[in-house]
Amino acid sequence: MERPKKGEQGMSYYDEVKDMLSRLENNVSKHIRSLFLPLRTGAQGIQVSGLTNTYGEADSDSSDSSDTPSSDRDDESGDTIITITDLTKVFGSRPSSAIEMLENGSSKREVLDETGSVVGLKNVNLEVHEGEIFVVMGLSGSGKSTLLRCLNRLVEPTQGSIVINGIEIRDLDDKGLREFRRAQLGMVFQNFGLLPHRTILDNVAFGLEVRGMSEEERHAKAQEMIDIVGLKGYESVLPDKLSGGMKQRVGLARALANDPTILLMDEAFSALDPLIRRSMQDELIELHSKLKKTIVFVSHDLDEALRLGDRIAIMKDGEIVQVGTAEDILSNPANDYVASFLNGIDRSKVMTCETLMRRPAVVVTQRTGPRTALKMLDDSDRSVGFLLDRNRRFIGLFKAESLPKAIEESKSLTDIVNTTIRTVMPDTKVEDLITILVETDYPIPVLNDERRLMGVIHPNSVMDKVRPDESITYEDVIE
What we know:
This protein has helices spanning 13-47, 52-55, 95-103, 108-115, 144-151, 174-184, 200-210, 215-228, 244-257, 274-291, 302-308, 326-331, 336-342, 353-356, 370-380, 403-408, 413-416, 430-438, 462-466, 474-477, and strands at 80-91, 118-129, 133-137, 159-164, 167-168, 185-188, 262-266, 294-299, 311-316, 319-324, 363-365, 384-388, 394-399, 444-447, 453-457. It has 479 residues and is an alpha/beta fold.
C-alpha cells in the first residue's frame, strides 16, 4: 500500500493516525507500569533476598550516608572493666555549694567566681573495656589527669561512682585501697619517678619489695620485665646514666612487674624528644599486643591519641565532649571544639575503608540473567553491578554497556563478569585506597576475609571525607 503524501493542510491522515496510536501506546505503557511497578520491585526484592544476610534490605542509593553496611566483624572489645558514673571533682572549701551551682546549670567560671572552687570534673560517665588502650585527651586544664588520678584515688572524687573489676573503689578503706592498688593498678608518670640511689634492677623490683616478695623472686620478675622493655644489660646502672626514653622504659617495666590488671599512664611520653616518643609509642603498641593489659593513657597530643587509642575520650572543662574510635571522631566530630583538634591531621592515615563504604545498588547472584541485570541497573540508574556466587561470595563486576551484547549472544553474567578488579578490606587504610582509586574507573568492592561483599567505595566520596575542614580553628571555639 502506497503511503499518502502530506497535503497542503499539514499532516496527512496516515500521519495523524500514526501519531494518535503512538500517544495511545505511551499512555497505556505508563498506566501498565504504574500498575505493575510494585510487583516488579517485589520481584527484584525476591531475587536479591538471598543476599539479606550480607546487607539486610537491598538499597537503591549508594550515596546515602545512612546506607553504610554493617562490618560483619566480631566485636573485639572485651567486657567492661571500668565504669565511671556521674563523677564530679571540686577543688576548694565549698564543694557542696559548687555542686549545687553545677546542678542548676552554672558554668565552671561562674562556680569559681561565686565559691572560689575549681571544678576539676563534672558528671563524667565512661566505660573502659578489658584489654583496650583507652586514651583520655584534652588541652591543659581539661581534667584528663584529674580523671586518671581519681581511678586510683590519688585524687579523691567529690561525688559519683568508680567501679573497677566489680569493686566500688570509693567504698574501700585505707588498707583495702592499698591492697587494691598493688593488685589491680600500675602507674607510669611523666617525670619517671625513679629512685636515684637504686639500680635499674632494684627500681623495677621496688613494688615487689614493698609487697614482701623475696629478693630472688622479685629480681627474677624484674629481670623479666627489663628484658621485655629492651633494657637487658642495664640492670646494674643507676638512673642518671640513662636517656629519657630509657628512664621511661624503666618506669614502664616497674609498673608491669606487679602484673597489674590495669595500667594508668599519665602523659607518659610527653617529656621525650619526638623521635624517642614515636619509638616509645611503637613499643607500647607491641607490649600491649603481647600482654593484653587494659591501658588508660592520658595525652594532650591528638596524633598520639589517634596512634595509640582503641577508643578516645576528648575532654573540655572537666566534661567528656566525645568518646569513640579514631575513625568515629575523625568522621563525625561532635562539635566545633572537637573539629578544631582535627585540623592538619592526615585523616587518610587513620581512617579505614569501613568508614567510607556504602551499600552497592545492584547485587545479583549467578542465577540472575543479563536481561534482568540490565533492567535492575536501569531502574537504579547505575552503570555497574556486582556478581556473587551461590554462597554469596564475591565473583566480580559487570557493566551495563556489556549486557546488550550478552543478551544478543545468549551469554550468562558469569561469561562477561570482570573478575580481575581491585578490591580492598574493611581495615585497609584510606591512604592505600587512594593509590588504588587513581588506577581505576569503577567503585571499589570491600570484601571481608571470606570474600563476602561488605560494601563499595565510590571515588567521588573519598576526598570529602579525608579533606580536613580548615574553616574551623581552635581560636574560633575556645570561648
